[in-house]
Amino acid sequence: MAEEQRRATKQIRASEIQISRFGESLKNFADNAILKAAQALERGEGTVTEALQLLGRLDQALVGAGLGEFANDLQQIYGDELRHIREALSRVSGRDDIFTDVDSDIITTLVDFDTERVMRLLGEYTGDAKRTLLTAVMAGEVPDLNQFDDAFGSRFSSQLETELNTGLAGFSRSVNLYKAQELGLEYFLYVGPNDSKTREFCLERVGKVFTTEEISMWDNGQGLPASIYLGGYNCRHRLAPVRGK
Q1: Residue 60 included in any domain
Q2: Domain for residue 233, yes or no?
Q3: Which has the least CB within 10 A, 114, 133, 147, 172?
Q4: Is 198 contained in some domain?
Q5: Is the pLDDT of residue 230 over 90?
Q6: Which of 206, 204, 182 is nearest to 194 (CA)?
Q7: What pLDDT, on the 0 to 100 scale, is given for residue 130?
Q8: Helices (H), 184-233
Q9: Is residue 228, in this structure, part of any structural domain at all?
């Protein structure tokens, strides 16, 4: 049990670092595109109508500049998580054939759904940028990107990291429980950090083993299914399959 707890905590922290780096890179990527648009407006290149067209093309500019690479990076993060799930299920079940072709289709759908959530947040961020730049253009002012970053940048980074951590953890638990049921596995160890950030809900459970029936009865008080989201948004914990209590 102690070894499983140590292994899981290490993996969770590694995924948190991956997510933090991904979020930082994505924000920098978007900020560079926004900066180019702002510089063009500041130089007075073209009419107001042309400036509006430039802002309207901001999303397309992001795609053309390589946004697809970030989707690949995100899939890599999920791929690493899936590998950990497969290894854990294999250790407990003694089987190597954990995932089927049907499973792959389901998993791909889950990853695509979370990717869409990230793209939605990015769209909201660039939308805020368009409105900020447009307001400056219509007022004949120079766009203040520092003010924009103060108003929207930190919020975007925080929301993005929360969505990614919550989505990845939910993905992990969903796949884990789904496959464990197929493999006839009933017991799960509540694993993850036990520190000052740990919620009371998690403090009461971390390091303990629960059955699927017990897990199904949990209520985290946040309106989210506890079997999937455990302590709620940004919960860093996982359910690791084990042989028994």
Answers
A1: yes
A2: no
A3: 147
A4: no
A5: yes
A6: 206
A7: 82
A8: 200-203, 212-216, 226-229
A9: no
